[in-house]
Amino acid sequence: MQSLQGRDFLSLADLSSAELIGMLDLATAMKQGQSPAATSFKTLGLLFHKASTRTRVSFSAAIGQLRGQVLDLNTSVTQVSRGEPTRDTARVLSRYLDIIAIRTYAQAELEEFARYAEIPVINALTDWEHPCQILADLLTVRETFGQLSGLTLAYLGDGNNVAHSLLLGCALAGMTIRVATPAGYAPDAVIVQQAQTLGSDRTQVVITDDPQAAVTGAHVLYTDVWASMGQEAQADSRIPTFQPYQVNQILVAQANPDAIILHCLPAHRGEEITDEVMEGPQSRIWDQAENRLHAQKALLASLLGLS
């Protein structure tokens, strides 16, 4: 994965198909106990403007397993909270850190930071994309089916940042993706077009408002909360609109008999997914959560040149 050394990871579209598969291969090897060929004490900074459990903990554990350290750059106790310009923060932190993961609202802010930083910058979630999550998702799917190409993933719910990154990731992996959302909540047309271009004639990108059509024969059923961070005030009002997109046993029965269930977490049980499905035999949600660690460990090793 030498081609990734020193690069930013702001979007799944930053990777080629070969680089994506190589990243998953490395994550699999590391999960099985393989250590990076070279190890060196590196410092990862976490600059998070939003709450986080899985991303924060998995990145911290990953850099530790690579014999590095993490600095949690709590925005409330740094000059970021007092309005220091992004370009200034990026230049300064580049002098202290080897790599940084940023969780923020606007993709444009992340991209501005990357323009002025002299170290690799990782998108740990923006309102536009969540690429680190999808690395773990695809790793989980491949562990289950032994391949990615030719499979179909159905995403149900809000056309949010996770849906955006799934569109790009599935296209790169050669998977068909069907995104089912209520009218007015579809993923951005720019991302859909990008996914269609990346997938070319290897796969299909389907956007629909019909949840039954989306799940029929699908190998993977995927959902997320109906109101993302920052949209909490809309959560209750969205429930009637999104109720037909709930991943429940009725929808699961229409998928491929060997289909698996994924959710990026945290989940609102009884809303976007039923407790029965989440705890059922087809759920791979906990494996998916664990794979955040292995995927991000491979990502850090690749960007730092340790693989």
Automatic annotation (TrEMBL):
<keyword id="KW-0055">Arginine biosynthesis</keyword>
<feature type="binding site">
    <location>
        <begin position="264"/>
        <end position="265"/>
    </location>
    <ligand>
        <name>carbamoyl phosphate</name>
    </ligand>
</feature>
<keyword id="KW-0028">Amino-acid biosynthesis</keyword>
<comment type="similarity">
    <text>Belongs to the aspartate/ornithine carbamoyltransferase superfamily. OTCase family.</text>
</comment>
<feature type="binding site">
    <location>
        <begin position="228"/>
        <end position="229"/>
    </location>
    <ligand>
        <name>L-ornithine</name>
    </ligand>
</feature>
<dbReference type="InterPro" id="IPR006131">
    <property type="entry name" value="Asp_carbamoyltransf_Asp/Orn-bd"/>
</dbReference>
<feature type="binding site">
    <location>
        <position position="292"/>
    </location>
    <ligand>
        <name>carbamoyl phosphate</name>
    </ligand>
</feature>
<dbReference type="GO" id="GO:0042450">
    <property type="term" value="P:L-arginine biosynthetic process via ornithine"/>
</dbReference>
<feature type="domain" description="Aspartate/ornithine carbamoyltransferase Asp/Orn-binding">
    <location>
        <begin position="150"/>
        <end position="302"/>
    </location>
</feature>
<dbReference type="GO" id="GO:0004585">
    <property type="term" value="F:ornithine carbamoyltransferase activity"/>
</dbReference>
<keyword id="KW-0808">Transferase</keyword>
<comment type="pathway">
    <text>Amino-acid biosynthesis; L-arginine biosynthesis; L-arginine from L-ornithine and carbamoyl phosphate: step 1/3.</text>
</comment>
<feature type="binding site">
    <location>
        <begin position="52"/>
        <end position="55"/>
    </location>
    <ligand>
        <name>carbamoyl phosphate</name>
    </ligand>
</feature>
<dbReference type="InterPro" id="IPR002292">
    <property type="entry name" value="Orn/put_carbamltrans"/>
</dbReference>
<dbReference type="GO" id="GO:0005737">
    <property type="term" value="C:cytoplasm"/>
</dbReference>
<dbReference type="InterPro" id="IPR006130">
    <property type="entry name" value="Asp/Orn_carbamoylTrfase"/>
</dbReference>
<protein>
    <recommendedName>
        <fullName>Ornithine carbamoyltransferase</fullName>
        <ecNumber>2.1.3.3</ecNumber>
    </recommendedName>
</protein>
<feature type="binding site">
    <location>
        <begin position="130"/>
        <end position="133"/>
    </location>
    <ligand>
        <name>carbamoyl phosphate</name>
    </ligand>
</feature>
<dbReference type="Pfam" id="PF02729">
    <property type="entry name" value="OTCace_N"/>
</dbReference>
<feature type="binding site">
    <location>
        <position position="79"/>
    </location>
    <ligand>
        <name>carbamoyl phosphate</name>
    </ligand>
</feature>
<dbReference type="Pfam" id="PF00185">
    <property type="entry name" value="OTCace"/>
</dbReference>
<dbReference type="GO" id="GO:0019240">
    <property type="term" value="P:citrulline biosynthetic process"/>
</dbReference>
<feature type="binding site">
    <location>
        <position position="103"/>
    </location>
    <ligand>
        <name>carbamoyl phosphate</name>
    </ligand>
</feature>
<feature type="domain" description="Aspartate/ornithine carbamoyltransferase carbamoyl-P binding">
    <location>
        <begin position="7"/>
        <end position="143"/>
    </location>
</feature>
<feature type="binding site">
    <location>
        <position position="161"/>
    </location>
    <ligand>
        <name>L-ornithine</name>
    </ligand>
</feature>
<keyword id="KW-0963">Cytoplasm</keyword>
<dbReference type="InterPro" id="IPR006132">
    <property type="entry name" value="Asp/Orn_carbamoyltranf_P-bd"/>
</dbReference>
<dbReference type="InterPro" id="IPR036901">
    <property type="entry name" value="Asp/Orn_carbamoylTrfase_sf"/>
</dbReference>
<feature type="binding site">
    <location>
        <position position="224"/>
    </location>
    <ligand>
        <name>L-ornithine</name>
    </ligand>
</feature>
<dbReference type="GO" id="GO:0016597">
    <property type="term" value="F:amino acid binding"/>
</dbReference>
<dbReference type="InterPro" id="IPR024904">
    <property type="entry name" value="OTCase_ArgI"/>
</dbReference>
